[in-house]
Amino acid sequence: MKGKRQARPQCNNGFTLIEVIITIVVAAILASMIFSYFGTAITGSATPVSRLETALAAQSAIENVTADYMANYTSNLSGLQNKVGREGQALNVSYGNGTIIDNHFITWSANNEVRVQTPSVSNCLKVTVRDSIGESLTQIFTGGDQGVNCQ
């Protein structure tokens, strides 16, 4: 038996090239299907977070105006109106970011709110702030009397 070779048993320990290529193609097809199904949820998931941050900035600005009112302007609404700023302009920097939509004295008729020019007619100041994404917050300040109904 010296001249005869013995056949070695074949060992398949790996993958063939065609098996690897087919696996990659199937994985790519599945990945494209999953991305098209979940794509907008994945890419748009940061939108609510950024909207919330912007809304919280507007809320913080209104809270700063309210804190200033409570500390300094409960009996001087005209002073608060001047410090907040004019309608259509940016909010006073010390309060935060936003645009002033309303900053005027109001009273109510039978059905609607009525804008008045002078504080002697009304002791209610309406302040509305709009943030950069268009959401707005309104606060009504009264002349220090907690029972005031702005009429």
Overall helicity: 40-55%
Report the end-to-end length measured between terminal Cα atoms. 120 Å
> In this structure, how is the largest beta sheet organized?
4 strands, antiparallel
Average pLDDT level:
81
Q: Tell me the strand percentage band.
A: 15-25%
Label the overall shape: rod-shaped
Low-confidence stretches: none
- Class of secondary structure makeup: alpha+beta
Note the total helix count: 3
Please report the total strand number as a whole number: 4
Give me the Rg, rounded: 34 Å
Q: Please, could you describe this protein's structure?
A:
With 151 residues, the chain is of the alpha+beta class. It has a domain at 55-142. The protein contains three helices and four strands. The protein has helices at residues 17-43, 47-73, 77-84; strands spanning 99-108, 113-116, 124-130, 136-142. A hairpin with a 4-residue loop joins strand 1 (99-108) and strand 2. Helix 2 (47-73) packs antiparallel against helix 3. The longest helix is centred in the N-terminal third of the chain and has 27 residues, at 17-43. The protein starts with 16 loop residues before the first helix and ends in a 9-residue tail after the last strand. The model has no long low-confidence stretch (mean pLDDT 81).
